């Protein structure tokens, strides 16, 4: 009996010449506990770093191509991290308006008063399929969507109003 144990021990030593028997230690279900923990943490991290939001219930109308763009008004638009800042430098107030970004994403605002500065989260914009732009921020997984063209729609028949979109400094 003793001789069998010695042969078994010798075969283990041949399999692991460094003498590290720790590699043989396994959980009762056959897996290493550290591997399961690492896989669970990786899965959790990937779930937390999801890409764009996709919510079909938030899908809006398609971009109104037929309206075209009329005049450019003195409303300036900036990006600040994940926010879009609208500065209405005009003497005109707007009620029940739609803000279109890049001819794709839409946000409906109740009011933009004369002289008002409004900060909205870029992730609140949705396209006709219910997808949002990449807002930005530290934990983003893609490059933020630039706000190149920002237009205001004040009703269903008037041409869109162009704004002055100030690009991000890091874009150049």
Give your account of this protein's structure.
This protein has 172 residues and is α+β, with helices and mostly antiparallel strands. The protein folds into two domains: 2-48, no CATH class; 56-171. The chain has two helices and seven strands. The chain has helices at residues 2-15, 33-48, and strands at 69-80, 83-88, 94-101, 105-112, 117-121, 150-153, 160-165. Strands 4-3-6-7-1-2-5 form a seven-stranded mixed β-sheet, with no helix packed on it. β6 (150-153) and β7 (160-165) form a beta hairpin. The longest helix is centred in the N-terminal third of the chain and has 16 residues, at 33-48.
How would you summarize what this structure contains?
The protein has 172 residues and is an alpha+beta fold. The chain is 17% helix and 28% strand.
């Amino acid at each position: 009996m003793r001789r069998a144990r010695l042969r078994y021990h010798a075969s283990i030593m041949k399999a692991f010449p460094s003498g590290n028997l720790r590699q043989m230690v396994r959980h009762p279900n056959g897996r290493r506990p550290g591997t399961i923990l690492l896989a669970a943490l990786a899965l959790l991290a990937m779930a937390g770093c999801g890409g764009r939001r996709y919510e079909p219930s938030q899908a809006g109308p398609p971009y109104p191509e037929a309206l075209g763009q009329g005049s450019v008004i003195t409303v300036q638009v900036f990006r600040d991290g994940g926010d879009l800042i609208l500065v209405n430098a005009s003497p005109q107030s707007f009620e029940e308006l739609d803000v279109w970004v890049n001819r794709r994403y839409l946000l409906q605002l109740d009011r933009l008063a004369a002289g008002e500065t409004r900060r909205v989260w870029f992730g609140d914009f949705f396209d006709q399929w219910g997808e949002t732009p990449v807002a930005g921020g530290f934990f983003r997984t893609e490059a933020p969507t630039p706000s190149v063209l920002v237009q205001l729609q004040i009703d269903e028949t008037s041409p869109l109003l162009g704004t002055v979109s100030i690009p991000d400094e890091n874009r150049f």
